[in-house]
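ASSEMBLY PREDICTION REQUEST
Request ID: AP-0331
Submitted by: J.K., bench scientist
Number of chains: two
Total residues: 289
Priority: normal
Notes: Please return the full assembly, not individual chains.
Input sequences:
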Amino acid sequence: MTELDCEQVLRMVWEYLDGEMDEARYLEIQAHVQACSECGPRYEFQRRLRELIERKCREGPVPADLKQRLFRLLDA
Amino acid sequence: MPAMGATTVVPVAETAADDRQRFTALVEAHLDGLFGTALRLTRNRARAEDLLQETFLRAWRSFHTFQPGTNARAWLYRILMNAYIDGYRKASREPEVVDQEDVDEFYLYSRVQESEDFRRSGNPEEAFLATLMDADVKAALDSLPDPFREVVVLADIEGFSYREIAEMLGIPIGTVMSRLHRARRRLQVALWEYARRARYARADVPPAGGGGR
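STATUS: Completed
Returned structure:
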């Protein structure tokens, strides 16, 4: 595997954060990102952004009356 | 009461009650997530409740096909997505949305770095992320076309793999990846707009990033 340059590393940010790559590549990118002042902050920002979207879009528990209504359907 | 014969005849009513109990336990564990997903997909409380009920009934009707030990969550979400695609979304085709040429994967990062307003705080990334409220992020997500919103919900919020999403939506993995890339770019553009508006409205400062009216 040839060493990745910044452009290639930046292009793979989502696959990296989504955990959609093999371990060797993951470790290679991780090492690059930790050492690189170009890629490091960009990766960190995307990671936080992804985490923020997940956290802010979560809904609370399903309303009790709806839940009750659903399970009552099984008795029909 | 122990059965003495070679075969034990289990009354039908008992197995039915048994099924109900297993089904209830299985669904209950995932109901909150399914409801949240239905809300994000339909963007409407009443429609989300309908979709959840449809999903629930479909799952119950096909419960006999569920293989114990396999991924119950993926099974339920597949049923949810099928019900949603059948009855709730308009286009199943690839969205004909022209991507903006100047928008790349790091659109937001670049905007935040260039912004005088966010830079003034000393930590522009932090200042930007703190600006976004729940309602801003939800509204930005809601603004995406259906096929884009679906993949963001399944990947970013529900944490499914590309393969699982491909199976749920009946599309190739490559399509999941390209949709997700395009969706995340568009979401960043929307988030930037919401953050600017929010900052303008809440902090009584001019919109960040110039280009004021």
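REVIEWER COMMENTS: Chain B touches chain A at residues 20, 23-24, 31-32, 34-36, 39-40, 49, 52-53, 56-57, 60, 105-106, 108-109, 112, 125, 129, 132-134, 136-138, 141, 152-153, 155-157, 159, 161-162, 177, 180-181, 184, 187-188, 191 (CB under 8 Å).
SIGN-OFF: pending second reviewer
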